[in-house]
């Protein structure tokens, strides 16, 4: 079973995703965001909070190459989250100010690889942010991120068996 869990910031989506795999014997937790490094105390606190919630027997892999990591998974996988993955992808490829066609080409290729790899994992939960319900960004980078993540979410949802929307800690199965 593959499940995409989406929702807003602090909605409870990560906790729900972790709960979905709580009884699995073997879980690989893929963290594609930048690791805690002391440069941003707020980010470091979030990373630490997530780490303390994970069962001790889960293996954690911190990498932006989620597709390659998924192909190595034996057991279940939890990817948390696509928003940090997309940010890393845009950063690593210097795409924030790039031509829209170049951005789309790079992102499309990476999303295809991610979706292909996701289909090789028996049980997987993927967490993402729902960014299209709120404020319209006033800067190009915000609009770029919102639009790209919306497309990423649609493509990943298409290879998942279920999509769960989490709002205020409540789960709606779509």
TrEMBL record:
Q: Does the keyword ATP-binding apply?
A: yes
Keyword hit for Transcription? no
Q: What is its EC number?
A: 2.7.1.156, 2.7.7.62
Cited CDD domains: CobU
Gene Ontology terms for molecular function: adenosylcobinamide kinase activity; ATP binding; cobinamide phosphate guanylyltransferase activity; GTP binding
Alphabetized UniProt keyword annotations = ATP-binding, Cobalamin biosynthesis, GTP-binding, Kinase, Nucleotide-binding, Transferase
* InterPro entries, per database record: CobU/CobP, P-loop_NTPase
A matching Pfam family:
CobU
* Residues that span the membrane, as ranges: none
What GO biological process terms are annotated to this protein in UniProt? cobalamin biosynthetic process
What catalytic activity does the UniProt entry give for this protein? adenosylcob(III)inamide phosphate + GTP + H(+) = adenosylcob(III)inamide-GDP + diphosphate; adenosylcob(III)inamide + GTP = adenosylcob(III)inamide phosphate + GDP + H(+); adenosylcob(III)inamide + ATP = adenosylcob(III)inamide phosphate + ADP + H(+)
Pathways per UniProt: Cofactor biosynthesis; adenosylcobalamin biosynthesis; adenosylcobalamin from cob(II)yrinate a,c-diamide: step 6/7; Cofactor biosynthesis; adenosylcobalamin biosynthesis; adenosylcobalamin from cob(II)yrinate a,c-diamide: step 5/7
Q: What does this protein do?
A: Catalyzes ATP-dependent phosphorylation of adenosylcobinamide and addition of GMP to adenosylcobinamide phosphate.
Q: Which family does it belong to?
A: Belongs to the CobU/CobP family.
Q: What is this protein called?
A: Adenosylcobinamide kinase
Protein species of origin = Mycolicibacterium duvalii
């Amino acid at each position: 079973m593959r499940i995409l869990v989406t929702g807003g910031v602090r909605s409870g989506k990560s906790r729900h995703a972790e709960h979905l795999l709580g009884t699995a014997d073997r879980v690989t937790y893929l963290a594609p965001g930048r690791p805690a490094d002391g440069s941003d105390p707020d980010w470091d606190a979030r990373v630490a909070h997530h780490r303390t919630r994970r069962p001790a027997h889960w293996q954690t892999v911190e990498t932006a190459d989620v597709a390659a990591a998924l192909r190595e998974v034996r057991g279940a996988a939890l990817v948390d989250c696509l928003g940090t993955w997309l940010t890393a992808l845009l950063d690593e490829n210097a795409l924030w100010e790039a031509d829209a066609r170049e951005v789309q080409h790079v992102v499309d290729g990476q999303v295809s690889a991610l979706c292909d790899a996701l289909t090789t994992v028996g049980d997987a939960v993927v967490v993402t942010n729902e960014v299209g319900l709120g404020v319209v960004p006033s800067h190009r980078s915000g609009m770029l991120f919102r639009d790209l993540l919306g497309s990423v979410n649609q493509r990943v949802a298409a290879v998942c068996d279920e999509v769960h929307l989490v709002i205020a800690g409540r789960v709606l199965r779509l």
